[in-house]
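Appendix B. Extra example for self-study. Work through it before the problem class; the solution is given directly after the inputs so you can check yourself.
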Amino acid sequence: MIWLLAFQLAIGPTEHYEHAKQDLAQRKFSEAASEVNAALHENPSMVPALVLKARLASFAHRPDVAKSCLITAITVDPTSEEAQFYLGVFFYEQNDFKPAISPLQAAQKLSPNSPLPVFYLAMTHEALGNQSKALELYQQAENLSPQISPQTAEIAVAYGRLLVSQGRAQDGIEKERRAIEIDPKSRDAHYVLAKGLEQQGDFRNAALEGELALTLPEANASDAEIHYLLTRLYRKLNKPDLAEAHLEKFLALKKTTQK
Amino acid sequence: MLIGVETTSRQQGSIGLGKIKLAITRREFVRGLAALSSGTMHSRALSILHTTSAGDGQSLSAAGQSADSAIVFENTIKASKIDFLLKNSVSPQRYSIETMTGGVAVFDYNNDGLLDIFFTNGAEIPSLKKSNSSFHNKLFRNNGDGTFTDVTEKAGLAGVGYSMGVAAGDYDNDGFVDLYVTGFNCNQLFHNNGDGTFTDSTEKAGVSGVLKRGKPWSVAAGWIDYDNDGLLDLFVVNYLDYSLSTAHSCKTGNVVDYCSPDEYRGTPNILYRNNGDGTFTDVSQQSRISQYLGKGMGVAFADYDGDGFTDIFVSNDSIPNFLLHNNGDGTFTDVALRAGVAYNENGKAVAGMGTDFRDIDNDGMPDIFLTAMYGDSFPLYRNPGKGQFEDVTETTGIAAMTSRFTAWGTGIFDFDNDGNKDIFAAGSAILDNSMEVNHKPYPLPNFLYRNLGNMRFKDVSGEAGASFSVPAAHRGAGFGDLNNDGKIDIVVTVLNGEPQLLMNRSQNHNHWIILKLVGVADNRDGLGTRVKITTANGVQYNQATTAVGYNSSSDKRVYFGLQNATLVDQIELVWPTGVKQVLNHVMADQILTIVQSSSSKKSDRPH
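Solution. Structure tokens for the complete assembly:
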């Protein structure tokens, strides 16, 4: 027993933290939580563990715990890019956009070559309605992102969506096509591409993209949104039966949501 | 063909001031000087100071004005002597009604040619009584010199209950505009007696707004001749099935909050048909209006499909909007879904607030705009005809300009008289604790979106004057030319604050025409009349309506900005009963009264 206790005591906070990371990667949330708590029990100021605990708390819908851990982390080490970044992400996900800016900017300064803080800054500014700033930051994030990566695709999708929402269909279409080259299964990219093509009056290809989007795993663009888009497109294409079919599916989904 | 036409025109002439030629009468010149010296900035006086001829060194563009001259407003509420505070009785329980009052009517109650202003007001909570004069609805008479006089007591318009909105219309065709006031617990019809007084005729008329289940929460109303019989009928917009005694509290975290409309069921709207004898019949059921349960906030009328019957658009809160197609046989059908105006372009029902229904691209087909909540954008639906609307919110730039705001009152008017109708929106969040709950500010500024003429809009709020940078809890907005200078002014209500009297001080040389319609076979106000004008710059369309925006009622006169055209080649009117009337070669820059001619032809086709 003593040997066991000694053995556990011999596993320092770093090891507990590493175990927690592995558990999180394997989506073993309870185990990860235990390990990270053990790490913090031994070293309450361990910044990486605090950040990891914050992330776990966010998954568990405990924003109070998440916020507390992140603020503690930044207080202990303001130069932790990870802590600053996740604090910014935390605020963003809480729809508290103004406070998100400062930690994301800090993360950007601490890690100038990383596209993620810039990407989140772009989305934050977009949410605040600072569209010009958002566009500038999306471009920066794109420039920082490796040529072919899931990150690049995500950035391109968001960038394109903003461009399309501004009526800049052609620019938005180019971004979405790039996203699709990297991630052909991106539902959002196909959906936004469809909207851009609709703006340009290319209803046929827009419908093809919309139909394709429907077959892909659900993401930000919901089935209801895509059915609604297709309803519109098929009406414009003079295909009332198809329009009606999609409208019925749209309405059915609306009813389900209302229940 | 006899056309009864009176003009309030400006006599062209030069008043010997060097090379300056002034297009005003001597009377207006003197009035303007008096206003200047008294501190009320009469815009006509301003234009005297700034008008130059081409020989004075400042050359005008070929269009007769600086092409990019700003649309500018000045808030003259202090100088106006309007003493009104909109009281909503905020309670710790935060009853939903507290967020919703604030209607305003801009109308000429005494037929002196000047627009007067009527404000609705709240009441004590929970008694819902206007326990003292601070809760009274108020009528202010326009004195013609920039000031207004409170004539509420004489008029008898203090009202009862927790009032919401107002609709102005001459329902008995006696030449005097009446008022219908909606409320949470009480709706009232005030008959204008023509002598400065009004009589509460609600019971006699049968328009109390009470249904079998009780009195629903009425928010807005509008006057419409839906059956083209020459009499104004009344459409009442109802909101939630809500009662103070059964309302529950809502919270966000630990903060008591106003409940979302999702927490309550919707209610049917009401259509009252005018019997022509001072009474109305509730035809909600036979018209099929009552089968549609809504959470209505705003209403606007237009004949969107050109079939000669006025249709109804209702902006609903967080559920699909209604586009009630007038079938021409006394019934309506909601076609919003098929027409593409029920949802926004992502298939989402927005938190619809105020609305206007007007031709924004001069193609003859009325388009729809509504304000909404932050995150929604304010939808703009273009009507290309054939019963289908296009959501152009994104392509016009409106989405980018509105997605982070909430707004209430709204109107589509040509504020700079350049021939393109612009959009005004009265900004404010919904929750007075919005910062605590949503991390967003409660008071917001007003917004002005200039129509660039190519289905693009530009946010020109920042250049519209100091009044546009003042955030407040704005609610309703009424539109009309309060000083008859040819430029549209705006009255905006503010919760727990004094209203804003936004006088249009735009400095340009654009011409204009205002049409005051007088129906004979048709309703006296001419509401529902469709108007097409032709000038050297092209054609424009509009219609006579007072139902504009949120909870509010605007001037019934029909406004057109003419840019540099000094002549209107043709004015074509199609009255609701089908009478068609044409005027040719009409001078610009006048308020023209057009009396419906009895010898005009009934139009075979609506357009």
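Self-check: Chain B touches chain A through 20 residues (CB under 8 Å). If your reasoning did not lead you there, revisit section 3.
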